[in-house]
Amino acid sequence: MAILKGLLRYRKGDATFPQGGGHKIIMHVCNNLGGWGAGFVVALSKRWKLPEQEYRKWFAGKQNFKLGEAQFVFVQTDVTVANMLAQHGLRYNDDEPAVVELKNLEACLEKVYLHAFENSSTVHAPRIASGLAGLQWEQVEPLIKKHLVDKGIDVTIYDLE
Predict the structure, then answer these.
(1) Which residues in the chain show pLDDT less than 50?
(2) SS3 state at 105
(3) Which neighbouring-strand residues pair with 56?
(4) Whole-model pTM?
(5) What burial letters (b/e) apply to 65-100, b meaning 16+ CB within 10 Å?
(6) Each residue of 126-140: pLDDT tens digit?
(7) Judging by DSSP bridges, how do beta strands 70-76 and 79-87 pair with one another?
(8) Which domains does the chain have, with CATH numbers?
(9) Which of 3, 44, 49 is nearest to 25 (CA)?
């Protein structure tokens, strides 16, 4: 039996307001230092307090808090936030190397796939790992296709206007 491929869409807008019906997962990348306060997480925290609170509890408890893991935080009836622990440390300027290893991002994307599959969810995100984390979108997009779209999950990537 062939699996139907999902769709990868690009849309102008805010990923904290995912478009479409059904259950939606908003995925984003977190660091392994317990830091939350720059990039997309600022917008997330303005919209919902729970993703940050749960991330900080996860960090403090150290329970399964390791690169390649993902935490799923239910924020409203049809939206779950995926805190993906794929970033090792912080990056302070564009001259520094990327702080996301592709293997960690892939492990997180696989967990998002399973959660999306089990909940018949679509996935929504900003251009993860390609801002403050330092990867090029050309490195990230093929991983999203491989781990989500090619397995039948619809993904929408948001670019702020």
Answers:
(1) none
(2) helix
(3) none
(4) 0.94
(5) bebbbbbbbebeeebbbbbbbbbbeebeeeeeebbb
(6) 999 988 788 889 999
(7) antiparallel
(8) 8-159 (3.40.220.10)
(9) 44
Closest to 101 measured CA to CA, from 115, 110, 89:
89
Q: Identify which of 85, 82, 72 has the alpha carbon closest to the alpha carbon of residue 26.
A: 82
Q: Which amino acid is at 1?
A: M
Is the Cβ–Cβ distance between 67 and 59 less than 8 Å? no
Identify whether the C-beta of residue 38 lies closer than 8 Å to the C-beta of residue 58: no
Q: What angle do CA 86, 10, 122 make, to 5 degrees?
A: 65
In single-letter form, the type of residue at position 50 comes to L
Is residue 156 within 8 A of residue 122, CB to CB? The reply is yes
Classify the phi-psi angles of 64: left when phi > 0, otherwise alpha if psi is within -120 to 50, otherwise beta. left
Alpha carbons 125 and 27: distance in angstroms, whole number: 5
Q: Which residues are within 8 A (CB) of 32 and not within 5 positions of it... i.e. 6 or more apart?
A: 65, 66, 67, 85, 87, 88, 89
The token pair that represents 91 in the structure block: 């990056």
